[in-house]
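Limitations
The structure tokens in this dataset are predictions for the assembled complex, not deposited experimental models. Users should treat interface geometry with appropriate caution, especially where small molecules or nucleic acid strands are included. An illustrative entry is reproduced here so readers can see what is and is not provided.
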Amino acid sequence: MSGVHLSGSIRRRLTLQLVGSAAILAALLFVIVQTFTRDLAEETHDRILLASATSIMDAVSVRSGEVTVDLPYAALSMLSNVSDDRVFYRVVLGQETLTGYADLPLPEPLPGDDDPLFQTLDFKGESVRMATAVRRLSRNGVPTHLAISVAQTRTGQVERLNALSRTALLLGAGFFVVAVLLAVWAAQSSIRPLRDLAGMVARRGPKDLRPVTRPVPSEMAPLVSSLNSFIERLRLSLSRSEDFIAEAAHRVRTPLATVRSQAENTLHRVERPENRTALREMIRAIDESSRAAGQLLDHAMVSFRVDSLERSPVDLTELVAELVDRLRPVADLKDIDLVLEQTTPHPILGDPILVQNAVRNLLDNAIKYAPDESLVQIGLNTESGMHTVTICDQAGGFPTDQLDHLTERFVRGRNAEGTVGSGLGLTIAREVAEAHGGRLEIRNTEDGAGACVTLVFPSA
Amino acid sequence: MRHAGLSLCLILWAWAAAAFEIEGREQFGPTEGRVLRVLSTTDIDILQPLIDSFLRARPGVAIDYTVASSAQVMQAIADEGARFDMTLSSAMDLQVKLANDGFTRAHRSAWTPMVPDWANWRDHVFAFSQETAAIVISRSAFSGVTPPRTRQELIDLLRRDPDRFRDRVGTYDVAVSGLGYLFATQDARTAESFWRLMEVLGSLRVKLYCCSGEMIEAVANGQIDVAYNVLGSYARARRDLADRILVIEPEEYTNMMMRTAVILKGATEPELAGAFTDHLIAAAWSVPPAPEYPFQDPPQSVRALGATLRPIQLGPGLLVFLDTLKRDRFLTEWGDAVKQD
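Predicted assembly:
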């Protein structure tokens, strides 16, 4: 991420926000469930206590002016359905305790007739829930009231509430865990299009300047559209400069050829040695310029064809053999022996013109830089699904510290000075190899006498 | 109320002077060392095998075993604050009352889960036996007569021949015996026939007894011919009388009392009390029960009982008949039925 200034991460921020919301919701769920169950448990308990008090109230009778209570069996036994808790009750008429636990505290003031009162209080060293029902009545013409309280300890209820709390806690925790997993997944999937786009752009070859056409989410449309227009501007600018160079090279080459033939004619006519030397220098310079112009044209042609690569079956062996035959006369001028070591077919899928251009540039280089009466070996090999063409010369090799930069444009080996060349040959070969999904390898031979350049293509 | 915080029913026993009455007392084990003080309604000789096996495993531990009636047990603990570590009682209602009113402490151990839920109240009251309320009749008096199988058959039999059975029937004096009161109130709750039977018994000038043992003796030695609501376990335990008495469990329903243990809040040896409770639990609820276990095998589940066996439920329902007004009313009605002079 060189040169990119980071301001946080969308995925992390999204994950944190979602996890934070999930935590808040889980806590809320826990509190709500707990409050709800607590209310429900208390309400259930209250209802049963009131039912008990009411059943005792129903068992109150007046016999010859005396108020008496026949405690129903169910009044207390129904409370054991709730829990195994201690049970207390008290029946009070006016100020007099008729029956029950006389020390059970009565509420002050007493509630109204149809308004039973529920209290939580301490009795006999334990927290109890108590329901009190009151009925006004007249005794011997004097108004009085009958109060019935039924109380039960809350151990069972507290235990049940604790169990429910644990369940609520587990529920909240489970909800949180699921929500976190979903949050991570949601964050991942929402930035996936961004990541896909970045990956797609990053995977593009250096020459690939096609616009992005795959569908993207609407939020990313402005970005992609800006990116596409940027790419288009870049492509136009590049092709314009390539066109310019090709045009310039073409325009220069034709006059150069005229100048060269004029210079050669003049060379035949002049006699004085210093004039002849000057003319030879001139011709050499013209050759160099013309070759550079040729290579620039080659390079422009290669760039064009690479942009819209058309593949057809090519036999490397046949292509290399033909080139070797064609260049043999040039090599013979320097008494260089071209040795082709392989004859079995090596089929690849590719643009034959480009491949031929690449191989020819490499052979040109080898012949050009090799000393007279030396050997240039051309080998074809197959290695793990790749076909290779290796050209080895005896030209003294490349400076080792330059090996990595030799394929950049216009870079020439330091030891190449004094030879006609532009530094585009290796660049062309590398671009062709890469356009075909292959690569260019450069290394010096082990004895240091020369260098080997290998073109690698995927086999058909 | 003489004493704040005490149960309302105590007023009934308040007449019984300052000290509770005991029926027997015996010390088992060494004279020095730790002593577990047990107040019990169960006769010494019945529980002695279990006491012996408990002490054998614990050298240096003694048991001070006091026998009293269930009412006296209640009075001793709730009213007088007598110093005991635990009580064993057949009066389930009074044991529940002790636990409900805060005189007991909870006990949880590796053994307590063996006790079925219906035989354990709040980890305070632990049942260690289930015993039937039976009818005991004299074999000689009923020779040649089909023994009654239900209360109704007993009522018919007694009504057919009042002269023969006058002064020859017996039952608990429910005003005195806590267990008798428990059986009577459960009968009254379960069936109308109970009051008819009481009236028939009353018309035959029924004799009232404090304890099952005395009723069994009375039937065996010919003082009476029929005893109603006798502990079946006690009657069966008297193998020496087997040829003279017949134990009948009424077929329409038979109440089952659970003998229970509670550990008292004021216990000075709560650990020993817990260990002895565990010993009783293990003896009763192991399958099969310990060889020295003196009672009939308790059922492992209520469903295992026949439809006619009705275990009395441990729980606050038992407190209802201990209510002063309720008890007064019941005793009055019962007295009216039984004492028809």
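Some entries come with short summary sentences. For this one: The CA atoms of residues 211 and 228 of chain A lie 5 Å apart.
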